[in-house]
Every structure is written in structure tokens, then in C-alpha cells.
Design brief:
seven-stranded mixed sheet; six-stranded parallel sheet; binds zinc ion; alpha/beta
């Protein structure tokens, strides 16, 4: 079997790997229906997050169960399943509290850009769809494994409610699906911060009511102008840089909330201005598993179409071009078909 391996900055190879098999009795092995490239994959790809040697890639997945270990009870061969990028037993105190991505037995999925994948803790990690999905649902179902679940968590963590005024910082796939999530939850006004015409268009399709192209101080001023000087009730921070985080905090009204889901790279917060801002901060790796049943239902019943974030589809063996296209911002997000 061949799979995706990062050898160094810009050096993605599709090369011979071990075929995944059942190791623990709680494992499942799935045959990939579709996988994709994540914005977070670009950090090591760009050399901004060092790797210590050849590193298998990929953590977003959906597909058919091929084989299960002897202890697996709820997942069966032949089922179509989606799972989180973080495995979970779904029974420990953190899982029961709704934070499956902090499961006491968590493992990170890291070899999903391949035709087959071993999923530990299959019963607590995977959720089956009601039936085998039609091909046209595949992109949307795939997004639930991370990018849509993460956008949804950003909206949830930012306390978006029906009628809320929302600002979304970041026009990558997560930010765009944060807009879709805020819309679905019932936000009245959704201000997208984006300077990229194709992304602005998708933002509007997903429910953005206003587009702000300014950044930094000017961006904050624009958000204040658009909200009668108040600031947004909820701000979704979907980038993870110092600039984006500060922009998010400063766009939020006193008592409002920032949901931050961009993995922070070099972000440092000063306690005193944060203290006086009265802003709630909540973020982290999204507990995707908590949202899977509800989001599968929304996709299955054609209430949401998050698969529209994929603007490039390639055969899996052309994964290197998928990374290049996203790195050069020619593509928002690349879907890969084995
Ligand atoms: Zn757990």
C-alpha cells in the first residue's frame, strides 16, 4: 500500500507504507472513501513546525469498515463511518463531559492520507451513517471528521445564539465553515474578514452578511463601526497567529466570547488588557465526536452542504499537488480520492 509521507519542507511523497491492520482488540480498519488536506498540515509542510524524520500525514477520513477487533461492539464491517481526528473511548470523565478530544485514552490520527486506516478505540471514535451514502454526500460527510466539526466548535465555543452578531477571523476552510455553523445556529449578522474574492463569495453563500477586508487596527475599527461601536457578541478565531488572536479579542464586546480553533503558533497574551477586556476565551482541538451525530443528521437531510469548501479534487496519488495548491492559495481545500 502507498500512503502520504512528509520528508521535509515542501517534500510530500506518496510512497510504500505498511498496510494497517488490527493491533488492539478495540481497533477497526477502514477502507478510505475520501480524505483531504488540512490547513494544519501546511504548518509542517512549510517548515514552520519541525518534523524529526519522515512523517505520515492525514487526519480527516471517512470510509467503509473492513475489519474490527474482537472487543469492538457497535461498529460492523461494511458500515460507512466517520470519525474524529482525535480518538476517544467516549466513556471517560472528559468524554462524558463533552470533551472527547481530551479523552484520557486519546490518540491523534496521523496516517489518513492513504487508502486504508487503522482507527483505535473504534466504538468510541467512529459514527456510522444511516446507510451507505450516495457519492454526492461524500464531500460533506468527510468535512465532519475535522474541518466542519471544528468550525461548529468555534461557533459553539464563541457562544453563538439565535440573533447573535458574529465576526469570523480567517477565511480558510475552518473559518468558512464557522460562518455556515453560525448561520445554522441562527446568528442574525455574520461579518467575515476576508480579502480573497473566491473566499468572500463562498462566505456569502454560507451566510455572511458583511465582508471586511481590513486587518489589524483598521479591521477592529471596521467591526466597531459595523456594530454601533459595541463589538461582536461572538468572534470565531480560525487562524492561530498573534495578529489574528488580538484582532479577535479586540473585535469582541465586553462580556462577549472568542471561540479559537486555529492552532496557536507563537501567540502570547498579556494578562492585563485581557483582564480589562471582559472577553471570554474558549478554544482547543474541537471535540468533533460530540457533534458527529447531529452534524451527520444535518448533512444526511440536506440541511447543510459543508462539502462546498472543497474546490479541488484529486486522485490520492497526486496528493503533493493538493498540498502545493493549498500552500499557494490556489485551492481552499483539497479532497483526495483513493
Ligand atoms: Zn475518553
Amino acid at each position: 500500500m502507498r500512503g502520504t509521507v512528509l520528508h521535509g519542507p515542501g517534500d510530500i511523497r506518496f510512497e510504500e507504507c505498511q498496510i494497517p491492520k488490527i493491533i488492539e482488540p478495540t481497533d477497526a480498519v477502514i477502507r478510505m472513501a475520501a480524505t483531504c488536506v488540512c490547513g494544519s498540515d501546511l504548518w509542517p509542510y512549510r517548515g514552520l513546525q519541525p518534523i524529526s524524520g519522515p512523517t505520515p500525514m492525514g487526519h480527516e477520513y471517512c470510509g467503509f469498515v473492513e475489519e474490527v477487533g474482537s472487543a469492538v461492539k457497535t461498529v460492523k464491517p461494511g458500515q460507512f463511518v466517520i470519525g474524529s481526528f482525535a480518538t476517544s473511548d467516549n466513556t471517560c470523565p472528559h468524554c462524558q463531559y463533552g470533551y472527547q478530544s481530551s479523552c484520557a485514552h486519546r490518540e491523534w490520527i496521523s496516517t489518513a492520507q492513504a487508502p486504508r486506516l487503522r482507527v483505535p478505540l473504534a466504538d468510541g471514535t467512529l459514527v456510522a451513517t444511516p446507510d451507505v451514502p450516495s457519492d454526492e454526500l461524500l464531500p460533506s460527510l468527510l468535512t465532519l471528521s475535522d474541518v466542519m466539526g471544528t468550525g461548529w466548535f468555534a461557533a459553539d465555543a464563541a457562544n453563538v445564539r439565535p440573533g447573535s452578531t458574529v465576526t469570523v477571523v480567517g477565511d480558510g476552510a475552518v473559518g468558512l465553515l464557522g460562518i455556515l455553523s453560525a448561520k445554522q445556529i441562527g446568528a442574525a449578522r455574520i461579518i467575515a474578514m476576508s480579502r480573497h474574492p473566491a473566499r468572500q463569495k463562498l462566505a456569502s453563500e454560507f451566510g455572511a452578511t458583511d465582508i471586511v477586508t481590513e486587518r489589524g487596527d483598521e479591521g477592529v475599527t471596521r467591526i466597531k463601526d459595523l456594530t454601533q461601536g459595541i463589538g461582536a457578541d461572538s468572534v470565531l478565531e480560525c487562524v492561530g497567529t498573534q495578529e489574528s488572536m488580538m484582532q479577535a479579542i479586540r473585535c469582541t464586546r465586553p462580556g462577549g466570547s472568542v471561540g479559537y480553533v486555529g492552532v496557536p503558533h507563537g501567540v502570547e497574551l498579556d494578562g492585563e488588557p485581557l483582564f480589562f477586556s471582559h472577553v471570554h476565551l474558549h478554544g482547543g482541538p474541537a471535540p468533533v465526536r460530540r457533534y458527529l451525530p447531529e452534524l451527520i443528521d444535518l448533512v444526511w437531510n440536506r440541511k447543510i452542504n459543508p462539502g462546498k469548501v472543497f474546490d479541488l479534487t484529486l486522485p490520492l496519488d497526486q496528493v503533493a499537488e493538493g498540498y502545493r495548491a493549498m500552500d499557494e492559495r490556489r485551492a481552499i481545500k483539497t479532497l483526495l480520492r483513493p
